[in-house]
Amino acid sequence: MTTTANNSLRNGVDTAALFATIDAVRADPEIAKFRFRAVNKWVNGTHNESTIHGFYGAKQEMDHQAAWTFDADHPAVLVGDDNGPTPTEYLLHALAACLVSGLANIAAARGVNLESVTATVEGDIDLLGILGLSDEVRNGFEQIRVAFTLQGDDPDKLRAVVEQSRLRSAVYDVLTNGVPVTIEVDAG
Amino acid sequence: MTTTANNSLRNGVDTAALFATIDAVRADPEIAKFRFRAVNKWVNGTHNESTIHGFYGAKQEMDHQAAWTFDADHPAVLVGDDNGPTPTEYLLHALAACLVSGLANIAAARGVNLESVTATVEGDIDLLGILGLSDEVRNGFEQIRVAFTLQGDDPDKLRAVVEQSRLRSAVYDVLTNGVPVTIEVDAG
Questions:
Q1: B10 phi, psi to nearest 5 deg
Q2: Spatial distance between the Cα atoms of A23 and A60, rounded to a whole number of angstroms
Q3: For residue B117, which phi and psi values (nearest 5 degrees)?
């Protein structure tokens, strides 16, 4: 976070740059086509790690400022070594982060000041599904709950900002509506 | 990774413990009800971070061995400060990690040896949706592709292990079939 005299900053969002970006996309919609990527390598047992670095967008291949790696594993109670969160917990994090990033932009664009935002996300899963012990239980979460606590400007405006974030969240869309996933295998 | 004389270890998976766990769940299905959790706090702008620590399972509240935190942000080209991956990249990581953790267990259970596993996951997203510039473009990924490269035992067995992992993946299920998400807001 840098101190700046930029008058278009609100909640740390540069609203002038945000509106300029939207105008640029409106003028050339090809800019808006992005492709994100994660490369996962198996380590041992249920332990594996993903690296996130490059992505395509604005008509070019780009890199994040660092190549971040994230360990995933199962906890001891699920016969793992607990070297990192479970994949399903990363999914909950992705949902929370998407809603919070979005609402910060939306609040700034609407001139609504934020003081604090916390989103607690919980998902219920019955492992009878993935353990193959019941055909009636699904493999994934049966439901996910998000609980927001916000402080800042007028509560009605804050609630409206959360609602608009839900309506424009990439992860919320994918989780609630589903997405086609294809899998290719090169086994040698 | 520890060196051990445990004869039930394959691919780093303790298959005896895995089968014992499945037997325990079969005897008492309540053990299988889990609740995972992530708590996200807004930092500044599109930058926020989630903490993953506690979860409920096997009839009790438990903690991972550490409270892990993960930064999420938008990259500079999307008017963020690039303090971490985008939420959508964490979603791709969650999918990759779930498939890889699962296939390691399945391979071990079937007596199939793994040497190396890499899963590259890509998702295509047109930002005209989340930027509110088109009603015909969805907010989330239009499609996700997973490309596996595996080495180990017989290629046909490796391909069958990937397929079974897909059939038993919690994250794959949620992404392809969707999940109900509820949002509550406490604004003050």
A1: -140, 130
A2: 19
A3: -140, 125
Q: Does residue A4 belong to the interface with chain B, where contact is any CB pair within 8 Å?
A: no
Q: Which two tokens stand for residue A7?
A: 């008058």
Q: Does B106 touch chain A (CB under 8 A)?
A: no
Q: Rounded to 5 degrees, what are φ and ψ at B132?
A: 75, 20
Please give the DSSP secondary-structure letter assigned to residue B74. -
On whether any CB of chain B is under 8 Å from the CB of A27, the answer is no
Asked if the Cβ–Cβ distance from B79 to A147 is below 8 Å, we say no
* CB–CB contacts below 8 A, A to B: 484
CA distances from B35 to A136, A182, B31 (A): 19, 28, 11
Q: Give the global pTM.
A: 0.96
Summarised one tens digit per residue, pLDDT across range A37-61 is 999 999 999 999 999 999 999 999 9
Terminal C-alpha separation, chain B: 48
Cβ atoms within 10 Å of A31's Cβ, excluding its own: 18
pLDDT digits over A87-134, tens only?
999 999 999 999 999 999 999 999 999 999 999 999 999 999 999 999
**What pLDDT does residue B6 have?**
63
If you ran DSSP here, which 8-state letter would residue A23 be given?
Answer: H
What integer best gives the mean pLDDT of chain A?
A: 95
Chain A residues touching residue B170 (CB < 8 angstroms): 87-88, 125, 129-130, 139-141
CA distance linking residue B93 with residue B85, whole number of Å = 10
Position B8 scores a pLDDT of 81
A174 with B91: Cβ contact below 8 A: yes
Q: ipTM score here?
A: 0.96
Which residue is closest to B83 within chain A, CA to CA? Answer: A65
Q: Which of B70, B108, B144 sits opposite A179 (nearest CB)?
A: B144
Q: Write the DSSP string, B148-159.
A: EEEEES-HHHHH
